[in-house]
């Protein structure tokens, strides 16, 4: 492994070219209607949508005006410059250090997603550690290979959950949007998470209780699959919620979410053995199940108050977007 890592370190050092791209922004005038009277002409209701789409097309920037041909007469940078350690650019780097924390702790939707994501990783860490601690012992006496196969249940559940929260979620928002007179709200992705919430909490309890009683390995596998289903569904839906709500600051939001996930889960492996010895395996997972249920039920206030928070923080969001634009343009 050391030789393998050393080889790729040298390969990266001498062959990985600079990937930072510093764009040149050229302003383009928008093409609009000739006069205001063009927009005030009476419209037949049957053709209203067609006229509106034509108006939007007229107000948009023509894609062809933003296209630039490559000038192949410009020489490529020399090898030393392509492998330069530093590439100075106009924007300051320090906002990238504090802005993810600002976004995480001032936008409730981002913090909610980070909490859901972090709790899922915590339960995943606990279940994985319990498998390696308990299953080599009686009554299971599993080999390392058999312990590895015990992860198949959560994997299958997570895969199904990804389709539930992803594919079914995309289709469900079409239905809910039609019910909302054609208007889509990002919080609609949370409407179908009642089942994953129950499956995640119930799966954790089933996983721990069946292992504690020495039941056949298929039962904790099923419990792990239930947990994996909830993890995949809630994770997909909440992360997409952030993308749909704050698309232009997604990078900062995801960085903050990753920080919260790691900050909460980093100490969990050290607490598992003392916790298990003090409360027992069954009580430990019952506690995990109810904590999971409480965190997942935060979906309910997010459904009711998420839109209100987005409206209240709209000015702050657009100010961040504008700051990013100024940084990238120099």
Automatic annotation (TrEMBL):
<dbReference type="InterPro" id="IPR036259">
    <property type="entry name" value="MFS_trans_sf"/>
</dbReference>
<feature type="transmembrane region" description="Helical">
    <location>
        <begin position="284"/>
        <end position="306"/>
    </location>
</feature>
<dbReference type="GO" id="GO:0005886">
    <property type="term" value="C:plasma membrane"/>
</dbReference>
<feature type="transmembrane region" description="Helical">
    <location>
        <begin position="121"/>
        <end position="141"/>
    </location>
</feature>
<feature type="transmembrane region" description="Helical">
    <location>
        <begin position="190"/>
        <end position="211"/>
    </location>
</feature>
<feature type="transmembrane region" description="Helical">
    <location>
        <begin position="253"/>
        <end position="272"/>
    </location>
</feature>
<feature type="transmembrane region" description="Helical">
    <location>
        <begin position="96"/>
        <end position="114"/>
    </location>
</feature>
<protein>
    <recommendedName>
        <fullName>Major facilitator superfamily (MFS) profile domain-containing protein</fullName>
    </recommendedName>
</protein>
<feature type="transmembrane region" description="Helical">
    <location>
        <begin position="147"/>
        <end position="169"/>
    </location>
</feature>
<keyword id="KW-0732">Signal</keyword>
<feature type="signal peptide">
    <location>
        <begin position="1"/>
        <end position="21"/>
    </location>
</feature>
<dbReference type="GO" id="GO:0022857">
    <property type="term" value="F:transmembrane transporter activity"/>
</dbReference>
<keyword id="KW-1133">Transmembrane helix</keyword>
<keyword id="KW-0812">Transmembrane</keyword>
<keyword id="KW-0472">Membrane</keyword>
<feature type="transmembrane region" description="Helical">
    <location>
        <begin position="217"/>
        <end position="241"/>
    </location>
</feature>
